[in-house]
Amino acid sequence: MKYLYHYLFLTTSLILLGNCTKDTLPGTDTTTPPSLETDTGAEAFEGWIRVKFKSGNDEIAPVVTKSGALSTGLASVDNAALALGARQMKRVFPPAGRFEERTRKEGLHLWYDLYFDESIPVSKAVSDFRQLPEVAVAEPIYKASLIHPSAPVEVSETTTISRASQNAPYNDPLLSNQWHYDNDGTLPDALAGADINLFRAWEITQGSPEVIVAVVDGGVDYAHEDLQGNVVNPAELNGQPGIDDDGNGYIDDFYGWNFIEDNNQIEVDNHGTHVAGTIAAENNNGIGVCGVAGGHGNHTGTRIISCQIFGTRNGQEVSGNSAPAIKYAADAGAVICQNSWGYTNATSMPRSDQEAIEYFIKYAGTDENGNQTGPMKGGIVIFAAGNEDLDYKTYPACYENVLSVAAIAPDFTKSWYSNYADWVDIAAPGGTYTSGGKYATECAVYSTITNNKYGYLQGTSMACPHVSGIAALIVSKFAAPGFTPDQVWAHLTKRTRAIGLYNPSYLNKLGSGLADAYMALAEDQGIAPEKVARLECSQTAGAMAVTWPVSADEDDGTADHYLLYWNTVPLENFDPDNPPAGTQSASVPGTRNLQPGESMSHTLTGIAGETRYYVAIIASDAWGNRSAATTTSVVTPVNEPPVITRESGDGIIAVGYNQTRSVTFRLSDPEGYGCTYTLDDPSGSSTSKEENGRVRITITNYKRPPGTYTMRLTATDLGGAVTTLDIPLTLEANQPPQLTAPLENVYFSSLQEVQTLYFSSNFSDERGAAAITYTLDYDDQALYITPQNRGFKIAPLRYGPAEVTVTARDEEGLTSTASFQVMSRDYTREVDLYPNPVQDKLSIRMGKEVSGEIRIRAVAPSGQIVWDGQAAISPFAPASVDLSALSGGSYTLWIEYQGSKISRNIIKL
């Protein structure tokens, strides 16, 4: 788990990227810091790097000469810039007005952005500048990404869902849509209490306009009906136009700053507006939704400053400067820095971001002299953990000194998209609505979007502002001289609700637990809940239902959670701090919507049959004040094994090559507690999915060895009883491509003609015609053939017949062949007679259109008809006439076809 450094000791120890240390604050060292390798995984901007000069180069003043060269006054820098075709260099953190002195003290004035020829690789530019003696750091600029897995589902500002908040404290009509504040369990797949416990927290505080949250994100819609007046910098809005009224170096930053275009024109965005609404939408105004720290009406809640680092340019989404945005937030008066963004695939922390974050942590809430002027001294930086459903380091969220937030669904489980890791600090509702169709749209997070609208979004982006809002409530309540972000961090992370019971696969990966606004604000009164009145256990094996009434708690209403213990040895006079050997335990969260005396239950698993079990329960509040133990015992019956039933067909499952087949099995536990399953498939062809007590096995026979196999389905109940079922499976072999239609012959009427042939309609394959490749065998003296897209271009090289053999090959190399004839003939010739002179059989070829029967007569010079008959002819099969009986000499041959006559002379040998 990460932790926030105590600021009193920050000057003596600071971790850099988790494994490098130095003895002074960022920017004050005079030695070269550990190098940061150019990250090949993250996408960097082209033609742009960031450079920090070493101390002693304080007064660099980059200018562009008349020749277009960049001049800094440092020869080596100018030469390196010239080699890159550099066109501009400017300070990353611009002159900061009355905060310039501390900006220089931290060395932030030494950071410069260098813009150069985009055709030159960024890695070369970084390498070139790292080698310069005046340079302490050179790094690429990563492209930041907003963290959300879906577009907003817009809902009319007058639409509410069929869920009523019976105890809603404010008159905002859409508050009932915000289950993430007070979840009564009526949503599909929801569990009561899977929320931030906000209604009870509002009984303590609702926020304060003295607390400013910087939203580093897309631009916030400051004119939104539910945010108007809460997104504002009063000193500038009430000051003189064109004057830096608050002295932070930014002129007329009425609502914040656009760090893409470097001006005060905020480009409003759904994502940033949704985040801001969760933190500070106006409460009790009779409009729309509520913010976590949105006050109780009349702008009594937390204020927002928009630090825009995402937007559009020429219709394209662009991201801007995160480091100066975070630094600006501190100088603009914010004490909480909200960040729902990150760097995709980055494997290191940009040094400029790190130093900006440390600046915010140290200087937020103070004036230029270091005196506390805000509600606390210093700032807290909060990041969304990311939406890749992965356990890996994602930056900046995993940086040691920021608080990172994972997301949960309305049933306490990890949201399907949320990252999880040991560096995550806390979890909060991020909602979900695309997990296999399990959750409805209204199970996402509901908040403001642009143009006076409201909508649902899901993501750790949506979880993060819940925590920022709770942080704002904490600062509102405990604001005092000397109050520090350390204390905010402790209130947030040490007063959470346990969710490990619902997330056994993510133990220690979702932070300290679910954020709880009430617990973060409440104080320990030292009063334990009442002892559990009675404890009942079902007389079952495998699993056992334990039931008890909710315990009252004098100061907290009801117990926060219950500690269950069980063993096969007596638990009389039970001491939870010294339990008997072999004692198992579970912590069961309480349920806020239940009143004292109403029933709760939990299921114990791994319960053996024919055994006496002893069970104890203790009620506890959030601070660990515990009641006395209540105990009972029960003897379990025989544990019956699960039952597996095939729901369709029987016998061998046969699957053709490249075919998919599914079969379903029903699993049942005689005790009624369900069971788990495993599937062993030696063929490696199957996948399985369990839903509602049924296992659907899907077999895909693709690139698997053919043959007969035996799959084994094993069901195990919660007590360890096992049932197995062998399932015979046959995977049929891949077959070669099949000829489904004969190949057509090709006729050319001249040597200039070209045709393109396709064979996809002639051959079929289990993988489809597109999976077949073709090779052609032919006489390359007679034909020219070349591939053309998915076909072949063919042209004749000479007149006469030719044959082409086509080999069709599937992706595993199996083949089949077929042939077609090619005839090339000069269309200007009516008839060809060969051989001429002829000894016995004479062949006759005619045009492409001649097909059928022709009449042939041979006439001697005397005029006598010496041969008269018919012969079959086609474009690819010449007519054949047997003239062997004729005497040698010259003859006239008459050929008749459909009323036309042609005469040619022949010589008979």
From TrEMBL:
<dbReference type="GO" id="GO:0006508">
    <property type="term" value="P:proteolysis"/>
</dbReference>
<feature type="domain" description="Fibronectin type-III">
    <location>
        <begin position="528"/>
        <end position="641"/>
    </location>
</feature>
<dbReference type="InterPro" id="IPR013783">
    <property type="entry name" value="Ig-like_fold"/>
</dbReference>
<dbReference type="Pfam" id="PF16361">
    <property type="entry name" value="Peptidase_S8_N"/>
</dbReference>
<keyword id="KW-0720">Serine protease</keyword>
<dbReference type="InterPro" id="IPR022398">
    <property type="entry name" value="Peptidase_S8_His-AS"/>
</dbReference>
<dbReference type="Pfam" id="PF00082">
    <property type="entry name" value="Peptidase_S8"/>
</dbReference>
<dbReference type="GO" id="GO:0004252">
    <property type="term" value="F:serine-type endopeptidase activity"/>
</dbReference>
<feature type="region of interest" description="Disordered">
    <location>
        <begin position="576"/>
        <end position="598"/>
    </location>
</feature>
<dbReference type="InterPro" id="IPR015500">
    <property type="entry name" value="Peptidase_S8_subtilisin-rel"/>
</dbReference>
<dbReference type="InterPro" id="IPR032304">
    <property type="entry name" value="Peptidase_S8_N"/>
</dbReference>
<feature type="active site" description="Charge relay system">
    <location>
        <position position="271"/>
    </location>
</feature>
<comment type="similarity">
    <text>Belongs to the peptidase S8 family.</text>
</comment>
<feature type="compositionally biased region" description="Polar residues">
    <location>
        <begin position="581"/>
        <end position="598"/>
    </location>
</feature>
<dbReference type="InterPro" id="IPR036852">
    <property type="entry name" value="Peptidase_S8/S53_dom_sf"/>
</dbReference>
<dbReference type="InterPro" id="IPR051048">
    <property type="entry name" value="Peptidase_S8/S53_subtilisin"/>
</dbReference>
<keyword id="KW-0378">Hydrolase</keyword>
<dbReference type="InterPro" id="IPR000209">
    <property type="entry name" value="Peptidase_S8/S53_dom"/>
</dbReference>
<feature type="active site" description="Charge relay system">
    <location>
        <position position="461"/>
    </location>
</feature>
<dbReference type="InterPro" id="IPR003961">
    <property type="entry name" value="FN3_dom"/>
</dbReference>
<protein>
    <recommendedName>
        <fullName>Fibronectin type-III domain-containing protein</fullName>
    </recommendedName>
</protein>
<keyword id="KW-0645">Protease</keyword>
<dbReference type="InterPro" id="IPR036116">
    <property type="entry name" value="FN3_sf"/>
</dbReference>
<feature type="active site" description="Charge relay system">
    <location>
        <position position="217"/>
    </location>
</feature>
<dbReference type="InterPro" id="IPR023828">
    <property type="entry name" value="Peptidase_S8_Ser-AS"/>
</dbReference>
